[in-house]
């Protein structure tokens, strides 16, 4: 087969796609195990000589995932097209990696055939790789193949790809000239600035394209020199120095050339800077590389270093903050460099065990693994280059790793450090590394349109909401907003994956379950997924949109190619350590601006995209520019352990990149000393055996200490599981979603709840799960348990067991000794162990549910989290320990465990415990109090009780003192410290006795005639009958009646004059000369009233003197009717024409249907269900003169559904008449209906109240004399619907008559009429503005 007869299209190598990743452990027996195809041509079967000459074989190897192409027929045709001489023998395999074996008689023939096969391969006629295994044959053919590759590299300099790149450069140059021409003509200032910006952009792009072309040409010339063994005339680092001066590996060089062509075609920005970066690295021991998002720094720099040969015999280690980033980057680089470096040249090490020995050319690992590698006395031997990626995140491990490497650089001058960051905040790192050099690489981000959507409900384009919005959701509002926005994008935007950021694993998984669409593939992405589960987000799903709900793990490092839309809630959940209290606070906070930009950049990696930010632009402006280093936010126990493991004894003087709070260091040191992990020696600290074990385990010190203590107690299995579930305790139960879903989850949790708290409950759940079920996922779903979290716990346990086996030689048994269903001594042991490790997080029950638990270290009350297992038990444990405090926004204790009182002495002195218990609230009950006395003691809306409690708290200086009322049991509950209880009891008991006394003496006044007065007590007993002219009632006058505490005044009167029969407080205080009337007291006897005049007059009370005057019965024969009171109001803010109608639950839609085309005031109203408020109807088109009562009557007439309230939406208040002007206007309007128009004020009183700024109505009170019932009714009818002369036309008056009536009768009579009275009262329930109290 000649080349001219080949029917296949020519495929130059620079256009070929990268070969897929495949297993590299090839062995010959794989080839021979495949069935062989023997061609029938006789010329391939020469007669065998008696003395066979030496056989020299050329092997043809297939590529591809399944080694199926080309077929045996195509291979036979390829070999048949070779020029003479033909092979002595040929064997062809129909499948497998070995495609064919060609045997020749001489070196010359075999070498010529190999060269010809390579020539066909380079020209794209086949995809087979020739291989020469015979050393003599390889040496003989090497010059021929090398010259062939050199010529091919020369041709590639002028290939179509090079021409296209040069054409692009010329096109940009022409555009630059065009812009310059436009700049030469007259332009507006704004256009001139835009043209300058456009020209600078074009010049930068041309410079980048030209630099890429130059890099490509330099690479091909480097390959030419290597093939021809020519001297290098370039002064800098050779980009392919690794192939210079070594035996030619044709397959490797071919792969390198293919990869170089792909690099030019893909055009990653960092490719244009390759030689400059390499020269920079070569001349500097430390370099900071700032590569913007999309520059390709994470995947390309390691390959540049490996290609250049700078690493010599050492490894190139690239660290990542997260395991998934290290694994995915290693996989990506392995695919790109397939065949360029040899087998197992690119590896990822993501666990502590894997980091025990680094043996690859390129290594991707986590910063914690490399740090652990150094702490294990292995140092950095065998490592030439360390690349610390994503340094802008400033994680704790990154900072410690940089500090460790800084010390190593002084001892090893051949060691190089490259710090890579996606943001330009590198000043602190430059200063830390003695002013090291910084290199900037521009990114390749496509335009990303930023849309700020702070309120989804207010956005007109988002008024069609998904079904999730109709559910009353107790999940955080930002979670539902994210799901709603994702739904909107999915239904309205073009193709492209959606990446939505949330704050936690539970939120991510709840969102995945809540979002359902047959045309979408919904995937979670968070740090607790397995590698297999995480890898699903990188796959393509043809015909369906990929939607990913993720945490901030997807902010950096990872590139999901088809992401076009990003939804950013602007929040992240972080755990912050408070040194002053020694507590970890888990809280949802705003992210930084750099993080927000990183999230937005995810949408512009492979094309233009959009980022929907669910917050305002002003919120973005108020964010911190860069995130705070983690070392200043977290507990430093792990950091101190690792610093000591590195051999640094003086932790306080350790050279941190950013020094943490000294108090945080002291707190960490103290905690580690309490755990027994470190000890002070020779003015420094050293690790104990426990500390060294904790370092080897590589987990948080408290969890490690729990494990080790459990081992000492014979609870090995329990210790490992306890550490794993404690690390994942926040997501074991699926308690998210609506209130109903949370309630259901809590009910399903009950069978697992343990009386000793959350950790024991989590242990019980894992034990049940591990015991085995036919379908564990179904079992988890039925019990509202997170199956993914339990699988994560299982993986953690497996890792810990392997680590314990290899590092500490400890074997973990498979059996349990603890049984959650049978209380044993193991319960006490586990509680003691947990207390020992969490001693800093001790809390005592405050004594009252309202105040929860008193956290000892912070001296503040915190409630248990609603999901706590202890809530299902009646009695709260006196002492607990907890893992951390969750702030969302109220603070809660999470992961709570009860501890025994007897065990407290192991962590604190008993004197300290007793002192704490003295501050605990004690409980005391006062019984035998009548229901009516209790209600009088409480007062209206609890006002009297509130005053009593305020007095007690002020007197005892304790804001926790509480007085509770149990009306069903007729009890008063007192809560106070033991030292204050006696005082609290005396004050409350005195107040109760006073109420009881007043209730016993309470009388009702009746006037049988014009000159008589009778006092009737309970049971209509006549307490006193006054037929003379003596008085029983006195009035109290005071300059400031508003300041008077009625209970305090009653006690004062009762102390001086006993036998109070009744008292009355005037609703509106009436002025008389210098004093104002507060109220009046009625006594059982005239002598008591006279004593009040003599004893109370002139007593100083609240800064003024009391004045007491008699109310003579003979001068006031009594009125036949009580006073008439009315409330008057008119709007001070104009109506906007909109109203909100509050309906009963679930009836809003029915009200809208019933009130369709409802006419009010000559206009039709438009009604729709409110999108912002639940159970409300939004009404538009309301005439401006219509009032709320008119609107209420209209709706009541149109629908039978329950209307709870109607509120008109009003605009800003207008400048109106003053209060005094309004009072005068009202008096003029009423006076015309009074019998004595000259002195109208004697029969009624008007008071207009000063409005608050937020009040939409002006309000007034009108009180008429009891004899003016008819005149009052006429005057009020006149005011109703009218407008005061001093007001605007829309300020229409509304009057509300206030009538009070009381019916009293003996019990025997009430028993007879009770049913009729009850029916009458029930009829009042549906009437607006009518209230009543049921019989006592």
UniProtKB/TrEMBL annotation:
Its EC number is 3.6.4.13. Residues 192-219 form a coiled coil. GO terms for molecular function: ATP binding; hydrolase activity; RNA binding; RNA helicase activity. Residues 33-48 have a biased composition (Low complexity). It comes from Panicum virgatum. Residues 278-442 form the Helicase ATP-binding domain. Keywords: ATP-binding, Coiled coil, Helicase, Hydrolase, Nucleotide-binding. InterPro entries: DEAD-box_helicase_OB_fold, DEAD/DEAH_box_helicase_dom, DNA/RNA_helicase_DEAH_CS, Helicase-assoc_dom, Helicase_ATP-bd, Helicase_C-like, P-loop_NTPase, RBD_DEAH11/12. Residues 481-647 form the Helicase C-terminal domain. It catalyses: ATP + H2O = ADP + phosphate + H(+). Pfam families: DEAD (PF00270), Helicase_C (PF00271), OB_NTP_bind (PF07717), RBD_DEAH11 (PF24475), RRM_DEAH11 (PF24637). PANTHER family: ATP-DEPENDENT RNA HELICASE, ATP-DEPENDENT RNA HELICASE DEAH11, CHLOROPLASTIC-RELATED. Residues 20-32 have a biased composition (Basic residues). Residues 1-11 have a biased composition (Basic and acidic residues). Residues 1-55 are annotated as: Disordered. Belongs to the DEAD box helicase family. DEAH subfamily. Transmembrane segments: none annotated. The keyword Metal-binding does not apply. This is RNA helicase.
């Amino acid at each position: 087969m000649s080349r001219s007869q080949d029917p296949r299209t020519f495929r130059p190598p620079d256009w070929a796609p990268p070969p897929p990743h495949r297993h590299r452990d090839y062995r010959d027996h794989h080839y021979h195990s495949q069935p062989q195809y023997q061609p029938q041509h006789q010329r391939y079967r020469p007669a065998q000589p008696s003395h066979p000459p030496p056989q020299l074989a050329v092997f043809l190897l297939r590529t591809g995932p399944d080694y199926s192409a080309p077929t045996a027929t195509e291979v036979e045709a390829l070999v048949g097209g070779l020029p003479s001489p033909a092979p002595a023998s040929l064997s062809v395999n129909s499948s497998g990696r070995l495609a064919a074996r060609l045997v020749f008689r001489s070196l010359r023939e075999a070498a010529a055939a190999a060269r010809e096969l390579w020539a066909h391969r380079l020209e794209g006629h086949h995809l087979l790789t020739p291989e020469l295994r015979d050393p003599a044959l390889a040496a003989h053919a090497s010059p021929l193949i090398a010259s062939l590759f050199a010529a091919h590299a020369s041709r590639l300099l002028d290939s179509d790809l090079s021409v296209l790149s040069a054409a692009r450069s010329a096109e940009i140059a022409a555009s630059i000239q065009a812009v310059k021409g436009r700049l030469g003509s007259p332009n507006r200032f704004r256009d001139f600035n835009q043209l300058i910006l456009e020209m600078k952009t074009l010049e930068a792009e041309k410079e980048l394209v030209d630099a890429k072309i130059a890099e490509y040409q330099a690479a091909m010339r480097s390959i030419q020199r290597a093939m021809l063994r020519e001297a290098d005339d370039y002064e800098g680092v050779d980009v392919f120095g690794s192939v210079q001066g070594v035996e030619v590996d044709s397959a490797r060089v071919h792969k390198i050339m293919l990869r170089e062509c792909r690099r030019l075609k893909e055009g990653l920005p960092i490719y244009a800077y390759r030689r400059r970066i390499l020269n920079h690295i070569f001349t500097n021991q430390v370099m900071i590389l700032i590569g913007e998002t999309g520059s390709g720094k994470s995947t390309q720099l390691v390959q540049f270093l490996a290609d250049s040969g700078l690493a010599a015999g050492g490894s190139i280690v690239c660290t990542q903050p997260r395991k998934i980033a290290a694994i995915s980057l290693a996989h990506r680089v392995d695919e790109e460099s397939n065949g360029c470096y040899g087998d197992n040249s690119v590896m990822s090490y993501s666990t502590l065990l894997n980091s025990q020995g680094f043996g690859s050319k390129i290594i991707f690992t986590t910063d914690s693994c490399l740090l652990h590698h150094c702490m294990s006395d292995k140092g950095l031997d065998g490592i030439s280059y360390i690349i610390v990626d994503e340094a802008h995140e400033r994680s704790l491990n990154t900072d410690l790793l940089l500090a460790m490497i800084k010390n190593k650089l002084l001892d090893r001058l051949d060691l190089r450090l490259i710090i890579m960051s996606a943001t330009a905040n590198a000043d602190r790192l430059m200063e830390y590394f003695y002013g090291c050099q910084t290199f900037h690489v521009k990114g390749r981000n496509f335009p990303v349109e930023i849309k700020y959507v702070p309120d989804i409900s207010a956005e007109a384009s988002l008024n069609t909401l998904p079904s999730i919005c109709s559910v009353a959701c107790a999940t955080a509002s930002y979670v539902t907003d994210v799901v709603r926005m994702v739904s909107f994008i999915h239904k309205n935007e073009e193709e492209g994956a959606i990446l939505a950021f949330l704050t936690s694993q539970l939120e991510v998984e709840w969102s995945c379950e809540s979002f359902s669409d047959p045309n979408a593939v919904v995937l979670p992405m968070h740090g607790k997924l397995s590698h297999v589960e995480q890898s699903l987000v990188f796959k393509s799903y043809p015909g369906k949109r990929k939607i990913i709900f993720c945490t901030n793990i997807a902010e950096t490092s990872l590139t999901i190619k088809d992401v076009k839309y990003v939804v950013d809630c602007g929040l992240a959940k972080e755990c912050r350590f408070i040194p002053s209290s020694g507590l970890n606070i888990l809280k949802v906070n705003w992210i930084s601006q750099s993080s927000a930009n990183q999230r937005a950049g995810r949408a512009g990696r492979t094309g233009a995209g959009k980022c929907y930010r669910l917050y305002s632009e002003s919120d973005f402006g108020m964010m911190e520019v860069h995130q705070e280093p983690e070392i200043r936010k977290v507990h430093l126990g792990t950091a101190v352990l690792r610093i000591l493991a590195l051999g640094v004894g003086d932790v306080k003087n350790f050279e941190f990149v950013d020094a943490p709070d000294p108090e945080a260091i002291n707190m960490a040191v103290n905690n580690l000393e309490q755990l027994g992990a470190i000890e002070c020696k020779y003015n420094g600290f050293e690790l104990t055996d426990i500390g060294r074990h904790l370092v080897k385990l590589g987990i948080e010190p408290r969890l490690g200490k729990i494990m080790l203590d459990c081992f000492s107690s014979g609870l090995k299995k329990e210790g490992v599981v306890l550490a794993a579930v404690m690390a994942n305790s926040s997501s074991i139960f699926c308690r998210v979603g609506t209130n109903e879903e949370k309630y259901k989850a809590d009910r399903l949790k009950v069978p697992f709840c343990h009386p000793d708290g959350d950790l024991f409950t989590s242990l019980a759940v894992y034990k049940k799960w591990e015991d085995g079920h036919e379908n564990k996922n179904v079992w988890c779903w039925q019990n509202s348990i997170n199956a993914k979290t339990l699988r994560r716990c299982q993986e953690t346990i497996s890792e810990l067991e392997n680590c314990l086996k290899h590092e500490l030689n400890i074997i973990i048994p498979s059996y349990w000794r603890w049984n959650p269903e049978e209380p044993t001594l193991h319960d006490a042991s586990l509680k003691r162990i947990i207390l020992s490790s969490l001693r800093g997080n001790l809390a005592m029950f405050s004594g009252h549910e309202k105040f929860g638990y008193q956290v000892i270290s912070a001296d503040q009350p915190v409630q248990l989290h609603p999901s706590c297992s202890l809530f299902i038990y009646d009695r709260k444990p006196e002492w607990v320990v907890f893992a951390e405090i969750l702030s969302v926004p109220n603070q809660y204790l999470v992961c709570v465990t009860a501890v025994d009182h007897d065990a407290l002495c192991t962590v604190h002195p008993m004197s300290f415990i007793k002192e704490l218990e003295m501050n605990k609230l004690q409980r005391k009950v006062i019984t035998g109090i009548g229901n009516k006395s209790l209600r009088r003691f409480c007062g209206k809306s609890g006002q009297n009780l509130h005053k009593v409690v305020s007095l007690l708290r002020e007197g005892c200086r304790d804001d926790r003192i509480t007085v509770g009322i149990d009306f069903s049991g007729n009890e008063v509950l007192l809560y106070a410290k033991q030292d204050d209880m006696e005082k609290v009891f005396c004050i409350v008991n005195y107040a109760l006795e006073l109420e009881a006394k007043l209730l016993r003496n309470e009388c009702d006044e009746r006037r049988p005639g014009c000159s008589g007065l009778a006092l009737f007590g309970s049971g209509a007993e006549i307490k006193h009958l006054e037929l003379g002219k003596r008085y029983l009632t006195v009035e109290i006058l005071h300059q400031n009646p508003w300041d008077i505490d009625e209970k305090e005044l009653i006690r004062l009167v009762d102390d001086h004059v006993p036998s109070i029969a009744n008292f009355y407080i005037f609703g509106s205080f009436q002025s008389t000369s210098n004093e104002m009337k507060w109220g009046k007291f009625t006594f059982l006897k005239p002598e008591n009233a006279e004593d009040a005049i003599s004893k109370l007059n002139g007593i100083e009370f609240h800064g003024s003197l009391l004045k007491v005057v008699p109310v003579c019965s003979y001068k006031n024969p009594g009125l036949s009717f009580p006073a008439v009171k009315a409330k008057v109001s008119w709007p001070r803010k104009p109506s906007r024409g909109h109203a909100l109608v509050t309906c009963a639950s679930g009836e809003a839609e029915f009200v809208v249907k019933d009130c369709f085309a409802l006419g009010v005031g000559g206009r039709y109203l438009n009604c729709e269900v409110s999108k912002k408020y639940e159970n409300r109807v939004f009404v538009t088109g309301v005439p401006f003169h219509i009032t709320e009562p008119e609107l209420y009557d209209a709706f009541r007439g149109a629908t039978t559904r329950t209307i709870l309230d109607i509120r008109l939406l009003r605009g800003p208040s207008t400048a109106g008449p003053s209060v005094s002007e309004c009072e005068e206007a009202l008096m003029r309007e009423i006076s015309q209906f009074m019998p004595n128009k000259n002195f109208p004020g004697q029969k009624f009183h008007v008071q207009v109240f000063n409005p608050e700024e937020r009040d939409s109505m002006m309000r007034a009170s009108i009180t008429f004399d009891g004899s003016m019932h008819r005149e009052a009714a006429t005057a009020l009818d006149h005011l109703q619907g009218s407008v005061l002369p001093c007001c605007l036309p829309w300020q229409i008056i509304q009057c509300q008559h206030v009538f009070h009536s009381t019916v009293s009768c003996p019990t025997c009579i009430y028993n007879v009429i009770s049913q009729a009275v009850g029916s009458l009262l029930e009829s009042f329930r549906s009437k607006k503005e009518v209230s009543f109290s049921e019989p006592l």
